[in-house]
Design brief:
With 245 residues, this protein is α+β, with helices and mostly antiparallel strands. Helix content is 22%, strand content 38%.
């Protein structure tokens, strides 16, 4: 597993087109996107797991340098999907890594009914990552805590294929979902109604110079944003976000 650097910025929706036009000379559409009104996008769907004492959420709040989160992820709408993923997202400081298992959508019902049971996987790499996921799931008694759904406008670098820039828009969440609700659009609430998250990921430090200039030009402020944490708390009426809204 190779770690990469990650930077996140909370940006007002009015800046989407301006920032898009500034980066377009240096990037091209992510090949996994589909054009929607000329914009390369897809919908991301994730269910985040946590322990009964919400260890992952509390570790984020406390700012621990090394953290781990379990999630199930798929994309777009259920009728157009042929795969889903079991993921362990690892974070060390400002670098991230991921153990990821790709599974056929036909296995999804089995996983929903028996989330801690072994899955039939032929690929050794996927089998190893799946076993890690199931190990933590059972050992720590993790269960679904938060569903996050958003539209991702995605680009990769023209001159650096390791560079990835995404605009995560219309971020919505629902608490305490069933695993089977991964493709549900019910009971969703907007997390940042007037903002999107600009994410920049790259393997080689520092950030490309042209991109650093754009960040400085628009005075973007790097923040430790967490869709899971904010998505969970946006349903708590007395919670005041740690980030601008």
């Amino acid at each position: 597993m190779k770690y990469r650097y990650e930077r996140k910025y909370l940006v007002h929706n009015s800046m989407v087109e301006i920032l898009r036009n500034r980066i377009l000379p240096f990037v091209k559409a992510d090949p996994y996107t589909q054009l929607k009104n000329g914009i390369p996008e897809y919908t991301v769907r994730s269910i985040y797991f946590d322990t009964p004492s919400l260890d992952s959420l509390n570790e984020k709040i406390e700012g621990l340098e090394k953290r781990r989160k379990l999630r199930v992820r798929s994309y777009n709408e259920e009728e157009s999907v042929d795969t889903f993923f079991l993921e362990i997202k690892l974070k060390e400081g400002n670098r991230i890594g991921k153990n990821r298992t790709k599974l056929p959508i036909e296995s999804f019902e089995h996983f929903c009914n028996n989330p801690s049971m072994a899955l039939e996987i032929s690929d050794d790499k996927y089998k190893s990552d799946a076993n890690k996921f199931l190990y933590y799931l059972e050992k720590e008694q993790q269960s679904p805590i938060n569903l996050i759904v958003y539209d991702r406008e995605a680009y990769i670098g023209k001159f650096d294929s390791g560079l990835r820039i995404t605009f995560d828009k219309n971020i919505q969440s629902a608490n305490m979902p069933e695993i089977s609700e991964l493709f549900s659009n019910q009971n969703l609430a907007f997390v940042w109604p007037s903002h999107f998250i600009l994410e920049i990921k790259y393997f080689e430090s520092p950030m490309p110079y042209w991109l650093k200039l754009i960040v400085q030009e628009f005075e973007l402020r790097h923040q430790a944003l967490s869709k899971y944490t904010e998505g969970y708390f946006c349903h708590k009426l007395n919670y005041k976000s740690a980030y601008s809204s």
